């Protein structure tokens, strides 16, 4: 049976690059995991094995590290833009470059008074601990004319210990869940948002500020929403980001409901007044949805929150 080649790409995945900027005694760290995927005129290498149009994946790896030196890493988005533009503009067979980046955050180790017996005053500017709050993500795609920048985060665990209910739901003969009028709401936030910056003719967003503000607004919405369902909280988080950040047109969430069940303490003669819970890691409810600016068509792939 005749076959034809479908969509394809190649590149070097998970290039872990750490860039240290030494500003005198004060150091700054950018820690990225960069994956490069290139596509274009690659039929011959699949059909006949001819590598005439193939830029080696080892070269893409080397480019990542060289660009960390030559261009620096101002932000994950800006670094991805430099790489994508380079691959498309320097290699005629390459028509589209997709750069996916995960960023690991670090914070300085310092004592409150600067005189810790463990940490000297001359160490606090170059000693760091990995921040464990979330993993920052971005995907940069360039076809020689148009850009698509989708950034986000994952594994940001948040909890409200009250101000959450769940009741009035459909019940059938298999329903055993009791209605809750004061429950724990806990989730691991994975989110991806799409910028409306698509051309070099437009003013480029401040990537670092935009990320911090998007995260701030979704967390504020999580805190301030009296939740009757995780779906309601998700929509409020997305709406807050869209309404507050004009450079973002679309945001997609994947929120597992990390269930906390009240433990029955009556067999021990104890009353559990919403104090002791069993935290179940599986199975879990999974709530996913996209929030869009009115009039905008959705473009974020469904699985992109799992970058």
Describe this structure in words.
This protein is 22% helix and 32% strand. With 307 residues, the protein is an alpha+beta fold. The protein is globular. The chain starts with 14 loop residues before the first strand and ends in a 15-residue tail after the last strand.
List the defining traits of the structure above:
alpha+beta; globular; 8-stranded antiparallel β-sheet; single chain; 307 residues
What is the CA-based Rg, rounded?
24 Å
Strand content: 25-35%
Helix and strand content put the structural class at alpha+beta
Biggest sheet, open or closed, and with what strands and sense? 8 strands, antiparallel
- Proportion of residues in helical segments: 10-25%
